[in-house]
Amino acid sequence: MQNKSQPSVVTPHEFQARTAIAALWASAMMCYVYADIIAFLVPGHLQSVLDGRMGVWTTSVPLLMGSAVLMSIPSLMIAATLLVPSAVNRRLNIVVGSMQALFAVVQTVGAWPPRTYTYMYFGALEFALTVLIVRYALKGLPSDLNKADMFANPA
After folding, report:
1. Does residue 148 fall inside a structural domain?
2. pTM value?
């Protein structure tokens, strides 16, 4: 007979932290999307895109693929926050949240002198949201791999 052990349950505190972090990732994603959509309304921006320019870079397949990968990460983090085991989840949100916060700073600084104040505004929001993600991950998710792992299979 097979020993089917019951997976440990996520505590209400951890569930609340996971839900808050997933909501913050969803909010950050909306900022990423709206920043790019509104940027198309800036005079001359759409024409530069049609001319094969992305800011200072010439549009290329590797640049587009890199952008796609970079922007898929936060969207995947919404689901990962709710589905990945606890201790891995904590580390993942701290690392990816920190990287996205740094990315928001680089993009905001790169928008200076103010090409678009809206892009800088969204960059500041993205930074604040990703810093909150890291804070919630540090404070609300367990750090011990053996402690509260909903996918644990104890022997």
Report:
1. no
2. 0.81
Q: Which domain holds residue 103?
A: 12-140
Question: What does the pLDDT look like over 113-131, one tens digit per residue?
Answer: 666 788 889 999 999 999 9
- Domain-embedded: residue 7: no
**What is the rounded CA–CA span in Å between residue 122 and residue 53?**
21
Q: Give dist(CA 106, CA 108) in Å, integer.
A: 6
Instruction: State how far the Cα of 125 lies from the Cα of 111, in Å rounded to an integer.
Output: 14
Answer for the pair 100, 71: CB distance below 8 angstroms, yes or no: no
Q: Give the three-class secondary structure for 77.
A: helix
d(CA 92, CA 137): 9
Residues forming a β-bridge with 57:
54
